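[AMINO ACID CHAIN]
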Amino acid sequence: MPYVDRQNRICGFLDIEEHENSGKFLRRYFILDTQANCLLWYMDNPQNLAMGAGAVGALQLTYISKVSIATPKQKPKTPFCFVINALSQRYFLQANDQKDMKDWVEALNQASKITVPKGGGLPMTTEVLKSLAAPAALEKKPQVAYKTEIIGGVVVHTPISQNGGDGQEGSEPGSHAILRRSQSYIPTSGCRASTGPPLIKSGYCVKQGNVRKSWKRRFFALDDFTICYFKCEQEFEISLLNMLKPRLY
């Protein structure tokens, strides 16, 4: 019958088949060490062996896929036999009695079982979102109404002024507030401080043209209020320095 030693390891004698299908079983002393993640077997109890005598066999618990009682077809002449399936190999072991066999099968299955921790912390994505949302919640920003339009195949959210306008007063003919917003971007490495909102995201996207409906690669920049696009990233950087308007194609 297996027992638990002082190091909290399950130990006991079992007979193991020397080679699969050989039918020859050898008496060995087994130690199930969950801390070391392995099953070891010795010629005898290590306390009775000479100093430095090591294990004659070992099996990592992570390699074990299943431990089950051997069927009569597998070992018809071997009572109290169970089998360990590990990778592409099978280990047949014989216990002393029925209870001994069940205890070893249960202990090995429990030790090699893959468990997923329950509860604990929140998923990383949730934590990141909460950490990003926390500073914004602390800031008291005035509520702003927006007008949604589609310009050049891009959905545009334009802030509406309190006097009922759409934020385009004083603009040049044909221009739009979303495009004028790009003029306020100032490089952070420059000597002047940025007067516009910080960028939320920037990068390349493929955009469909408004007239020819062809797809072109453009560099987009997004802040809290606007989204604008440029022919390339270099043009975006130049517009930051020279306060140029983005292209409209």
